[in-house]
Design a protein that fits this description.
This protein has 327 residues and is an alpha/beta fold. The protein has twelve helices and 15 strands. The mean pLDDT is 97. Bound molecules: NADP nicotinamide-adenine-dinucleotide phosphate.
Length: 327
């Protein structure tokens, strides 16, 4: 089969290769998916570059966790009726050598989720990491109707979904961006208040909007950078759910956090337990079936241009998701 892969870490153009790899056979409990799309996320370029000191887990890696396609074979114990099902994929390349940047992937049946009618293959390649992370972050923030939430980076792939998930739960959403185009994108997701974190005093704006109380929860894409904001923006007893960090370590205002009884939670979408995974999948299905989710496929390229796709994500040149089409 045709696949994109690398055998050493480094810059995209130097290490990513297009070539032939064996077609995988589904083992017991697995399905094989004929892929149509493959989604590119920040974790894909970070793994390819060895970010945060990560070595290659296997000698050859076919990257990408996210994707969509059609089940064309099943292993023992999986109902044959699944053949022909359109599915989206989560954890495609997590703890495994072979991800979705290929014509086929074989993986546990539960990691290939039936797609609702009407969802496109490109949009379905945005669910595994961006939407799943947003749903987990909002759920772990215990967002309910009437609450006010601050979503950091509301034009990001995860942030844009997080705004929508929090709005679907009935919250008021404040978000931060770095410019006008990103502000418009965050508003299109339903954000009630959008501030430029580079040019505005976000803490003062949050105080103004919440009548001096602060938000109930922060959904955070870069804790080390943004933690200084919480003393002004978060209410006593509030919660911060972090899914992103730009550095291995952070300096925290621990006395302030303690005195204000702040709950800090960290999430890692690849490592959810079965109950968390099931709760998120239920909420994802409800959101998809509502037909109201806005997906943002910002750049669509053929598999052959995988290096260009990685560079676009790594350099933050796109607003939304980057998706590869697979012949
Ligand atoms: N823990 C997990 O399971 C998990 C899952 C998914 C993603 N992640 C991580 O989460 C991060 C975001 O992922 P993503 O896919 O959403 O990336 P993305 O699409 O590149 O979005 C990141 C957004 O944040 C904005 N931003 C950067 N610095 C900011 C700051 N200090 N305050 C507010 N906004 C800021 C960026 O725009 P500007 O630079 O223009 O502001 C951009 O719009 C990445 O580090 C990724 O690796 C972790």
């Amino acid at each position: 089969m045709k696949a994109a892969f690398y055998t050493r870490q480094g810059p995209a153009a130097e290490v990513l290769v297009i070539g032939e790899q064996p077609v995988p056979q589904p083992a017991a409990g697995e399905v094989r998916v004929r892929l149509r799309t493959s989604g590119v996320n920040p974790s894909d370029w970070k793994a390819r570059k060895g970010g945060f000191g990560r070595a290659m887990a296997t000698p050859l890696v076919i990257p990408h966790s996210d994707g969509a396609g059609v089940i064309d074979a099943v292993g023992g114990g999986v109902p044959v009726s699944r053949v022909g099902e359109r599915v989206w994929i989560w954890n495609g390349q997590w703890n495994r050598a072979c991800g979705t940047a290929a014509q086929y992937i074989a993986l546990p049946s539960a990691q290939a989720v039936r797609m609702p009618d009407g969802l496109g293959d490109a949009e379905a390649a945005c669910l595994g990491i961006p939407l799943f992370t947003a749903v987990e972050a909002v759920r772990r923030s215990e967002v309910e109707a009437g609450m006010t939430v601050l979503v950091a980076g509301g034009a990001g792939a995860v942030g844009h979904y997080a705004i929508q998930v929090a709005k679907a739960r009935g919250a008021t959403v404040i978000t931060t961006v770095s410019g006008d185009a990103k502000a418009a994108h965050a508003r299109a997701a339903g954000a009630d208040h959008v501030f430029n974190y580079r040019s505005q005093d976000v803490g003062a704006e949050v105080q103004r909007i919440t009548g001096g109380r602060g938000v109930d929860a922060v959904i955070e894409m870069d804790l080390p950078t943004n933690v200084a904001l919480y003393a002004k923006a978060l209410r006593p007893g509030g919660t911060v759910v972090t899914y992103g960090v730009s550095a291995q370590e952070a300096t925290l205002p621990v006395f302030w956090l303690m005195r204000n009884r702040v709950t800090l939670r960290f999430i890692y979408v690849y490592e959810l337990d079965d109950a968390e995974r099931a709760a998120d999948l239920q909420e994802i299905e409800r959101l998809l079936c509502s037909g109201r989710l806005v997906h943002t496929v910002a750049l669509r390229l053929p598999l052959d241009q995988v290096a260009r796709a990685h560079d676009a994500v790594e350099q933050g040149r796109v607003v939304g998701n980057v998706v590869l089409d697979i012949d």
